[in-house]
């Protein structure tokens, strides 16, 4: 099949048109919901939003919290201190821009499972970035990661953006930079799900050594410190508590590694026996399964494409660092939300989606039940 013929088939593909229409309707409906003020969202999801709104309005009582102070000052500087609806739309529209760029040329690859993941990502965006939010400011980093240009410049700009975010918002993003570079180095020599998991665990070992020898604390010290005053709080229902009652660096490492595993296989959320947490747990389980499957089935063209590697490395490095700092699973989902479009891009990746010189024009495919075709080269 020629390249021109492949394009013609895609242009008249009725399934692709239906998928685009479904996503468009969901995006418009969610935008209307945001414009209405996102009613019925439980108050516990809006604590950070209210704190940011208070700071943006000029209250100086949170000066000791650099990240909240910075975010509040930005909203105040752009005139959104008393405009919650427009602040919400700003975050939501920015997320939609990242999502559409991630899905560009890929929506036709989506099956029912992927469409459900897209719907879930939009819902989470409404909750977590469709309001006053610190996580809105991660979305420009995601946009840079999706930059189509090859070469050194996109990498330098991406690392620079992460460093700026670390300096102004969250210090632990300096560790994300280190993890990103480490994953890129490993991926340059080949990648697989097994190596992905091994590299993530090795990164935790390295972080454990750094924390113990240079900071003088154990790997999960900061999570433990934050949660000490939150135990028993009725609004903290998904607190991450130690899985192993072991003191010292070994116990800390085991607990952080277990937290990392539960990010992808969220057994603690399943055990809550709550319909809401069950839905979230299923979403996370399917999301990470599809992400791992995409890495496993990726073709040689994908593995050597720096843009594909960029997305995988950024998602993995942030998740590893989250396993060290996140105090609860709600915070984990909140901080993962800006990365969801990048994960969807990896899940729906096809080498020809980005095009460019040397990109394959057509591939034979094999049907995988429940989702899109997989290139035959990946079998």
Tell me what the structure shows:
Keywords: Membrane, Transmembrane, Transmembrane helix. It comes from Promicromonospora alba. Residues 357-379 are annotated as: Disordered. With 379 residues, the protein is an all-alpha fold. The chain has one domain (3-378). It has helices at 3-11, 14-35, 47-56, 66-77, 84-103, 112-128, 139-145, 152-168, 173-187, 193-215, 221-227, 248-264, 267-270, 275-297, 300-303, 306-325, 329-336, 340-347; strands at 365-366, 374-375. The chain has a two-stranded antiparallel ribbon with strand order 1-2. The longest helix is centred in the middle third of the chain and has 23 residues, at 193-215. The radius of gyration is 21 Å and the shape is globular. The model is unreliable at 1-10, 351-370 and 372-379 (pLDDT under 50).
């Amino acid at each position: 099949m020629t390249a021109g013929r492949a394009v013609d088939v895609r242009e008249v593909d009725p399934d692709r048109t239906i998928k685009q229409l479904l996503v468009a309707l969901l995006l418009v409906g969610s935008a209307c919901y945001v414009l209405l003020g996102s009613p019925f969202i439980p108050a516990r999801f809006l604590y950070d939003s209210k704190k940011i709104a208070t700071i943006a309005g000029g209250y100086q009582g949170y000066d000791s919290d650099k990240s909240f102070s910075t975010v509040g000052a930005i909203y105040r500087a752009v005139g959104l201190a008393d405009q919650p609806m427009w602040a919400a739309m700003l975050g939501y529209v920015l997320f939609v821009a990242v999502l559409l760029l991630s899905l560009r040329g890929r929506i036709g690859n989506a099956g029912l499972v992927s469409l459900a993941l897209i719907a879930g990502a939009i819902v989470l965006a409404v909750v977590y970035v469709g309001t006053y939010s610190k996580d809105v400011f991660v979305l420009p980093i995601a946009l840079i990661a999706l930059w189509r240009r090859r070469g050194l410049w996109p990498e330098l700009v991406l690392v620079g953006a992460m460093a700026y975010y670390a300096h102004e918002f969250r210090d632990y993003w300096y560790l994300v930079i280190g993890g990103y570079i480490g994953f890129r180095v490993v991926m340059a020599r080949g990648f697989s799900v097994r190596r992905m998991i091994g590299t993530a665990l090795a990164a935790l070992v390295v972080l454990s050594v750094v924390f113990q020898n240079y900071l003088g604390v154990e790997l999960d010290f900061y999570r433990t410190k934050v949660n000490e005053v939150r135990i028993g709080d009725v609004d903290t229902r998904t607190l991450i508590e130690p899985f192993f009652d072991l003191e010292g660096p070994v116990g800390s490492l085991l607990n952080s590694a277990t937290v990392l595993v539960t990010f992808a296989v969220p057994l603690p959320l399943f055990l809550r026996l709550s319909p809401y947490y069950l839905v979230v747990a299923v979403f996370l389980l399917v999301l990470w399964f599809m992400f791992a499957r995409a890495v496993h089935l990726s073709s040689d063209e994908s593995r050597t494409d720096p843009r594909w590697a960029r997305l995988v490395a950024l998602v993995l490095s942030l998740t590893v660092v989250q396993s060290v700092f996140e105090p609860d699973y709600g915070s984990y989902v909140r901080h993962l939300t800006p990365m969801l479009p990048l994960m969807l891009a990896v899940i729906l990746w096809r080498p020809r989606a980005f095009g460019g010189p040397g990109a394959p024009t057509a591939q034979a495919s094999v049907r995988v039940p429940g989702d899109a075709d997989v290139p035959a080269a990946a079998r």
